[in-house]
Amino acid sequence: MAVSEIQSVPIGPHPDEPHPRGFNNRLNWLRAAVLGANDGIVSTAGIVIGAVGATGDRNAIMIAGVAGLAAGAMSMGAGEYVSVSTQRDSELALLAKERRELRDEPEAELAELAGLYAAKGLSDELALEVATALTEQDALAAHAEVELGIDPDDISSPVHAAWASMLSFTIGALLPLSTIILGSEALRVWLTVGVVVVALALTGWVSARLGYSSPGRALARNVAGGLFAMAVTYGIGAALGTQIG
Ligand SMILES: [Zn+2]
Known about the structure:
single chain; mainly alpha; 0% strand; binds zinc ion
């Protein structure tokens, strides 16, 4: 395309693909929230259905479900805290190293940045011009983006991530927990299975859309996984329940 043609379009994001600052990070959050909810649905459904297989006692079923919810939410939160903390530490260490290098050898760093742009296909002259302009504006951000793939203003917070996954797990877990507690004895299992199928279809569909893959398969896999988990725990509950009782 000739330069004059390009210039007839104003410079900016394509209207269908707005990529505002922090877009990727927000997408990661959404993905983590969907995964957390999915975990909450499957594990709690497995626990309460397993408990129903073992006993008809509503109180015992409720205690198992609530304990499972609390344990799962804390395990998710702790896991997320540790993993995001590790990522954050390594990102901050890399940024500190970059900052040191920019202070101690700014010329070598400019040459490095220009080299990275030249490697992307710009001529040496243009690469140096781009590198110089970006260095004048925000040298650290320029190096962080091209060298490290990090946005220095967008480092994830471990505490936020931990709360977000605890919360999403809890929301997911409340679905099977409430149907098993509130449903009548004759209907509660089927009510729970129905709600779990619908909820897993939704989380499967959303996570496929977030990953740009075909929603149909992801949805079917996700629902099948949940049904399998409930069937297995029901079987275990029934076997152990008759042995103990
Ligand atoms: Zn650098």
